[in-house]
């Protein structure tokens, strides 16, 4: 969901602030731009090609980033048009953008690498650094100084990931990582100001991690087939989607 700070006219004629959701349509290779205020209003649908992955807000809607098989497409948030392509050389799993929009981080689970894109130069430069096995979900601290990473585990020759997962806190300046082991099958991760949460699908749990200093697991919550996570703005409620029974589990994480 990306806020462009624009106003539109509602059915009664009143001007209201609107926000946009960018939706990837993998089969058609398109991106749809939908109004949050009026869900039946489509701002636009434009083609970006095949092998779409994820979408991320660059910096308050100025740029939108969409991953493809081995690149990141740059979309102008004002015109909803592709204005550039950043080649990564490896297939990105997920991406995270620094709060000031100056860096894009992309995880590459099979290569045990994270790419860093510097967007401050006329032609964005890409560098990589090694991390513990199977980097997947990414999040950044509000100041951009720490990168939080959930890890699938070791990539086996069969194509699967084996062994326990892990969680890392990486200094974005030095690239130094501090890690703690997690359960099998880390699926998704979300981070707040003091805690991070990781769903472990195989073990039917959600790990709660203290990120105020060195990372440490402070609680494990049983959730059957835990999937995607969403943390409320006040960080008191965690929403967990589940695979199998199509439900959302609501957890009180205020303590």
Describe the structure.
The chain is an all-beta fold. The chain has a domain at 1-87: Thrombin, subunit H (Beta Barrel). Helix content is 0%, strand content 56%. It has strands at 2-9, 15-25, 30-35, 42-47, 55-57, 63-67, 71-76, 81-87, 95-97, 103-108, 113-118, 125-130, 135-140, 146-151, 154-155, 161-162, 166-171, 177-181, 186-191, 195-200, 205-210, 216-222, 226-231, 237-242, 248-252. The strands form seven sheets. It has a four-stranded antiparallel β-sheet with strand order 1-2-3-4, with no helix packed on it. It is globular and about 45 Å long.
Notable traits:
255 residues, mainly beta, Thrombin, subunit H, four-stranded antiparallel β-sheet, 25 strands, disordered N terminus
Shape: globular
* CATH architecture identity of the domain at 1-87: Beta Barrel
The major β-sheet equals: 4 strands, antiparallel
The percent of residues in helical segments reads under 10%
Helix/sheet category: mainly beta
Task: Report the C-alpha radius of gyration, rounded.
Answer: 19 Å
Q: Any low-confidence stretches, pLDDT <50, length ≥5?
A: 1-5, 7-17
CATH class annotation of the domain at 1-87: Mainly Beta
Number of helices: 0
Main sheet: strand order? 1-2-3-4
Q: What is the β-strand count?
A: 25
Which series of helices and strands comes N to C?
Answer: EEEEEEEEEEEEEEEEEEEEEEEEE
Report the mean per-residue pLDDT as an integer: 84
Strand content: over 45%
Measured distance between first and last alpha carbons = 28 Å
CATH topology group of the domain at 1-87: Thrombin, subunit H
């Amino acid at each position: 969901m990306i806020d462009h700070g624009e106003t539109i006219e509602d059915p009664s004629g009143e001007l209201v602030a609107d926000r946009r959701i960018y939706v990837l349509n993998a089969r058609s290779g398109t991106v749809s731009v939908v109004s949050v205020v009026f869900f039946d209003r489509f701002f636009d649908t434009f083609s970006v090609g095949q092998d779409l992955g994820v979408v991320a807000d660059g910096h308050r809607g100025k740029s939108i980033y969409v991953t493809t098989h081995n690149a990141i497409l740059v979309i102008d948030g004002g015109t909803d048009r592709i204005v550039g392509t950043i080649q990564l050389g490896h297939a990105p799993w997920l991406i995270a953008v620094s709060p000031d929009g100056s860096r894009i981080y992309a995880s590459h689970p099979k290569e045990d690498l994270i790419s860093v894109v510097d967007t401050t130069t006329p032609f964005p430069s890409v560098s990589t650094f090694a991390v513990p096995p199977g980097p997947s979900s990414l999040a950044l601290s509000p100041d951009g100084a720490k990168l939080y990473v959930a890890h699938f585990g070791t990539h086996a020759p069969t194509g699967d990931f084996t062994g326990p997962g892990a969680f890392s806190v990486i200094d974005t300046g030095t690239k130094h990582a501090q890690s703690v082991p997690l359960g099998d099958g880390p699926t998704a991760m979300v981070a707040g100001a003091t805690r991070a949460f990781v769903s472990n699908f195989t073990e039917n749990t959600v790990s709660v991690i203290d990120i105020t200093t060195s990372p440490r697991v402070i609680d494990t919550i049983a959730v059957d087939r835990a999937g995607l996570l969403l943390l409320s703005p006040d960080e008191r409620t965690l929403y967990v989607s589940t695979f199998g029974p199509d439900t959302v589990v609501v957890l009180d994480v205020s303590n």
